[in-house]
Amino acid sequence: MTKNKGIGFVNRFVRDMGQGGLEIACFPDVATKLVRSLDGDFMTMPAIARMIESEPGLCVRVIGMANSAAFQGGGRAITDARSAVVRIGLRSLRAVILAFAVASLRDRRELKLVQSRIGEVWQGSVSLATLSHILAMRVRGVDSEGALLGGLMQGVGRIYLLTEAAFDADFREDIEGLDDIVTQWHVGALGKILAQWGFGTNIIEAVVEFHGAGSRSGLADILKTARLFLDHQATPDELKTLLQDFEPAVRLGLTHLDPKEVFEAVNRDASVGSALG
Known about the structure:
Elements: H1 7-19, H2 29-37, H3 45-53, H4 56-66, H5 69-72, H6 81-105, H7 115-136, H8 144-153, H9 156-165, H10 178-196, H11 201-210, H12 218-231, H13 236-243, H14 247-252, H15 259-268, H16 270-276
Helix pairs in contact: 3-6, 4-6, 4-16, 6-7, 6-8, 7-8, 7-9, 7-12, 7-15, 8-11, 8-12, 9-10, 10-11, 11-12
């Protein structure tokens, strides 16, 4: 890596963090508008449904989430956007909007150099979100929808920096050294973007804690335990042993879990991953 490569990029990022908002390059307009206006006093359910229906790809994802095992609960199949939003709620809608937006990034020619990394971040986020949702449903007092949302959103800072780098002169030809920059700075970007998008402090604090050494909330503990499961998915017997002394799992009372049963539950709920992936 060239000695000074990336310094200008980092300096611009720090400046943007201090001066105003961070915008993810190439995000579809409808995604940005929806995320920013969901909590607005004048945004009605019919208006939300109309905006969703204006983007067929987004509409398919929203309806797919509503009909997933996690949300259908034996109810009737839903075929319209308004009913789908009522069923999944506005927080889960945010997750589907982000999934739609990230999918669109993977089709943008300008992002060719970073598309594979964006895909890796997103698929990892979907896996973490799905598993976090499954684990949270086994703990009284932990919000399972918040766990789904937190697992998905924790990668947003990485996606922001990757898309910005695609337009930076230092990385236009190659992305050597970019991974180190993303690792060092993505948590700051994450907190800033989620605050701009109107996420509650409980979600923001949990995802920031997830990337740190400690955790003070049950939601952060769920995310950390889900990551342990993913890291040891291929060795369930070893995972079962590790759970006994893993502090987040101990605090949650999840040390008794059978990893094989948990992964089977994830596979049964694959429709959530399909709606988000």
